[in-house]
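Quick one, tokens below. Sequence please?
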């Protein structure tokens, strides 16, 4: 057994991990106790990383060799690496020759390593001669980048994670931190436990688990963030809570801002934001931190996509930063505006200039001196001056035929970009689509003319930078499977071929044979390091050898031994005059307007246990247990007003497209609003996914799109004929079955119907293998579909066969009535448990058949009830309750079991929590479920000794 220290590939917390491997197989993962980002903690996603690298998944999911499509209607077929790389170079050179280099577009990912990013950026801007290189970080952090640069002078978060321990007030705005950055949230919980006086303010349109734990929840209306921040500053000015000395010594532009916020009184803001005026006043006093005696109490602001993913995202960021500048809440422990990075290396990508408006080492493309510096450093005569197309613009241009070729690396735009109708038209119209990817199952893979297999987590060498500017090493524990290769190496190989086809104009005196002479990731990183000399992110004092010992924060200049934990402690900012700048944005209600046609505000966000498009996390059925199916969440009052029952299929339509989903009640969502998780794309459900609905309207400064909010209308979906089914399969077969079910989506969509297919179950850890020798690991698939009329026999048979309900595959219990459109099929194992089932026509029995399947309970006795064209008679299952929702993914603990234990636990809240954890272990491993467990404890009174215990859950 080998142990390899590396970094988690999910969110921007940048947790250290220890990868356990045996030979060429990753077998386990644990948190690195020595890594300063997490000190050994991991969330549910990080805890299961080794399972996403399981051997049985690789041949099903991984891109293992280059694949080429002879024509768009043909399948991808294997091709040699040299042939594939030659074709990329030749096609790109040809298009650049015919239409100019700006007919090319490169779209990258915040999950690439810094070394990968660097080579791609140099390839595009230095060799191909186009600035059309952008990244999905444009969808993630570009508004934070623009806000920092606009207000503070540089894209540099000024804080460190230790500030969570020192803050007196924490203002979380536009972030469900408990789910989006769970390990960091655990640290924040520790800080409040150590200092019970620490106050949390959460501004969020939904009552998320983060908001539910706040001392003050500002449940503002979507799009009104700037009004709230201006009103907070208005109160601070009115009550004399600002810091005039700091403003005078270290800032400019305050007078214009003061005049701007004069009109935003708490009363006016309360009406606009849908808040109470007294709550705004209270929040302003806490954030200002003024105390009767002693220094100002420190305030830390934390934010993420709720601010960034907006057509006014830069204004929101700058208006928030204004509060810190006005009160001097920056540059000292526990104080400052701290943007939480969404992706593991969005920061590293920005460091090397991996956006269409940036150059290496935080240089600006619009600055002629910066362009000349980079050109000389790279050895090329010139870097093009015209700003490249950002993500949304790039795909709009491809849809219009302006961009003829797209090279997409490590991202899934056919799921993640807004306004999917335009994106898919772009992928169809582009003459040549190169996809460099580790997985063959993403929605974008269906549009690739050439698929280049890339290595992924556990197989790569390089670096990433987390939210606190800390650079960590990523290390390979095992070789990449098949012919997969490192992303930087693929890009460098293409670049060397392009140098021969289109020799670059070299900088005078350049002596090298190639601009891309790299033999290792360290070679690339050393060049990047040198490019930072004298810049705000100078890391010339850092080497790979130092990173081997411990992660380090930048800047770390030559001659220094440690990086800077905090920035701007001296009050000097990286602006021409050394002063921070107040920005006075006018409030423009640029969120998509609601009207009589589109009266509902749709919000999007994360699920607790899924990551982005779920190409990795979605391979594990256990990570769907907390949120098992795609749903449209509405407030219970909204459901009651419309007289809709949970599970009813509803058509959600925006100005760009429509989607059908079942509804589910949620008190987290305010009335007249709705919520759909961002992860549900075309890989999981018909209709193209949630981004069929979202808007591609962008912030004029950051070019970040409005992914968080869309105006929609809701109406019942007239789809009376339905299907429900599920099956267990040996883990090595499950994904082939999923692909077979996905192939049916198109036929269902063409018939005007709806379908989704989602994994379920639990893939067991290798340590459990011996105990489970008689019960091999299985993976499950859940199927739902609905049509306006009875399905054609061929469609029904295709679904049944994919679920393993073909008579040729074993004995079945069957019932069919073609006249009524009723079909029921049931497959039992030799031990009498249910292996697979399909209900078509009347699916009422699914309420009890699905729990039989999930619980692997004896089902033979219910065969007659299933075959009857009705729900199971009440007397057969009188004692059975519906399956309770899962709360703890690590130990598969349900809500019902926690409520039962909570009712029996007495004492203080801490004592009750301890008792529940001792009984059930929930929240004792990764802690991601702790906010939910605490919420259940708050809502569950301790039962008196003589009281009956809560009903036991029978299908846990």
């Amino acid at each position: 057994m080998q142990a390899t220290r590396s970094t988690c590939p999910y969110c921007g917390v940048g947790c250290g991990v220890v990868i356990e491997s045996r030979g060429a197989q990753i077998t386990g993962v644990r948190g690195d106790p020595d890594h300063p980002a997490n000190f050994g903690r991991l969330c549910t996603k990080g805890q299961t990383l080794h399972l996403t690298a399981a051997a049985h998944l690789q041949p099903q999911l991984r891109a293992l060799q280059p694949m080429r499509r002879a024509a768009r209607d043909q399948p991808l077929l294997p091709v040699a690496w040299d042939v594939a790389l030659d074709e990329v170079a030749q096609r790109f050179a040809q298009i650049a020759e015919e239409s100019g280099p700006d007919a090319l577009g490169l779209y990258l990912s915040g999950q690439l390593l810094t070394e990968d990013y660097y080579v791609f950026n140099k390839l595009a801007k230095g060799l191909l001669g186009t600035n059309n290189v952008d990244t999905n970080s444009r969808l993630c952090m570009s508004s934070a980048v623009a806000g920092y640069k606009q207000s503070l002078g540089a894209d540099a978060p000024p804080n460190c994670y230790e500030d969570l321990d020192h803050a007196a007030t924490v203002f979380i705005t536009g972030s469900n931190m408990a789910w989006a950055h769970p390990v960091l949230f655990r640290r924040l919980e520790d800080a409040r436990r150590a200092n019970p006086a620490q106050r949390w303010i959460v501004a969020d349109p939904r009552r998320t688990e983060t908001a539910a734990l706040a001392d003050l929840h500002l449940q503002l209306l979507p799009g009104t963030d700037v009004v709230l921040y201006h009103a907070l500053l208005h109160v601070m000015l009115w009550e004399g809570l600002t810091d005039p000395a700091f403003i005078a010594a270290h800032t400019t532009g305050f007078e214009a801002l003061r005049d701007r916020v004069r009109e935003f009184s708490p009363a006016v803001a309360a009406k606009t934001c849908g808040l109470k005026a007294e709550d705004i006043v209270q929040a302003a006093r806490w954030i200002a931190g003024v105390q009767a005696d002693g220094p100002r109490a420190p305030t830390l602001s934390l934010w993420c996509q709720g601010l960034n993913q907006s057509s006014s995202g830069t204004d929101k960021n700058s208006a928030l930063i204004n509060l810190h500048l006005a009160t001097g809440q920056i540059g000292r422990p526990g104080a400052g505006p701290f943007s939480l990075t969404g992706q593991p290396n969005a920061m590293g990508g920005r460091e090397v200039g991996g956006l269409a408006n940036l150059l290496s080492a935080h240089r600006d493309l619009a600055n002629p001196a910066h362009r000349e510096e980079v050109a000389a450093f790279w050895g090329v005569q010139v870097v093009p001056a015209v700003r490249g197309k950002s993500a949304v613009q790039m795909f709009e241009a491809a849809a219009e035929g302006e961009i003829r070729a797209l090279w997409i690396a490590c991202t899934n735009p056919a799921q993640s970009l807004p306004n999917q109708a335009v994106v898919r038209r772009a992928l169809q119209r582009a003459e040549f689509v190169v996809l460099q990817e580790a997985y063959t199952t993403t929605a974008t893979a269906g549009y690739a003319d050439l698929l280049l297999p890339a290595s992924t987590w556990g197989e790569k060498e390089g670096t990433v930078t987390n939210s606190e500017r800390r650079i960590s090493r990523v290390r390979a524990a095992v070789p990449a499977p098949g012919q997969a290769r490192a992303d930087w190496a693929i890009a460098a190989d293409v670049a060397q071929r392009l140098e021969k086809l289109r020799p670059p104009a070299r900088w005078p005196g350049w002596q090298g044979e190639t601009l891309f002479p790299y033999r290792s990731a360290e070679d690339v990183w050393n060049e990047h390091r040198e490019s930072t000399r004298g810049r705000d992110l100078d890391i010339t004092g850092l080497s790979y050898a130092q990173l081997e010992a411990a992660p380090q924060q930048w800047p770390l200049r030559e001659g220094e031994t440690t990086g800077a934990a905090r920035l701007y402690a001296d009050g000097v900012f990286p602006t021409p005059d050394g002063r921070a700048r107040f920005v006075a944005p006018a409030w423009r209600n640029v969120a998509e307007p609601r009207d009589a046609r589109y009266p509902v505000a749709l919000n999007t966000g994360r699920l607790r246990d899924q990551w982005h498009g779920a190409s990795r996390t979605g391979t594990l059925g256990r990570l769907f247990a907390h949120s098992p199916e795609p749903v449209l969440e509405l407030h219970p009052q909204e459901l009651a007003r419309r007289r809709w029952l949970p599970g009813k299929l509803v058509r959600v339509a925006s100005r760009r497209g429509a989607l059908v989903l079942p509804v589910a009640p949620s008190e987290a969502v305010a009335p007249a609003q709705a919520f759909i998780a961002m992860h549900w794309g075309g890989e999981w459900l018909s209709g193209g996914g949630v981004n069929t609905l979202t808007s591609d309207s962008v912030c004029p400064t950051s070019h970040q799109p409005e992914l968080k909010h869309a105006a929609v209308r809701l109406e019942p979906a007239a789809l009376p004929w339905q299907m429900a089914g599920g099956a267990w399969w040996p883990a090595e077969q499950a994904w082939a079955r999923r692909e077979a079910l996905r192939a049916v989506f198109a036929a269902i969509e063409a018939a005007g119907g709806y379908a989704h297919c989602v994994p379920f179950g639990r893939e067991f850890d290798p340590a459990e293998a011996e105990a489970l020798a008689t019960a091999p690991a299985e993976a499950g698939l859940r199927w739902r579909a609905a049509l306006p009329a009875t399905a054609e026999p061929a469609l029904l048979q295709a679904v049944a066969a994919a679920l393993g309900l073909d008579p040729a595959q074993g004995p079945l219990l069957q019932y069919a009535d073609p006249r009524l459109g009723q079909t029921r099929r049931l497959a039992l194992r030799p031990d009498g448990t249910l292996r697979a089932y399909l209900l078509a026509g009347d699916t009422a029995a699914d309420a009890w058949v699905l729990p039989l399947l999930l619980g692997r309970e004896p089902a033979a006795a219910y065969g007659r009830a299933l075959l009857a064209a009705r729900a199971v008679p009440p007397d057969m299952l009188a004692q059975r309750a519906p399956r309770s929702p899962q709360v703890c993914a690590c130990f598969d603990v349900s809500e019902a079991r926690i409520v039962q234990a909570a009712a029996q636990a007495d004492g203080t809240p801490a004592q009750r929590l301890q008792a529940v954890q001792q009984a059930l272990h929930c929240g004792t491993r990764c802690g991601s479920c702790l906010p939910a467990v605490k919420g259940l404890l708050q809502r569950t009174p301790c039962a008196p000794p003589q009281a009956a215990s809560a009903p036991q859950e029978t299908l846990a």
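The longest strand covers residues 721-730. Residues 600-716 form a domain with the Barwin-like endoglucanases fold (CATH 2.40.40.20).
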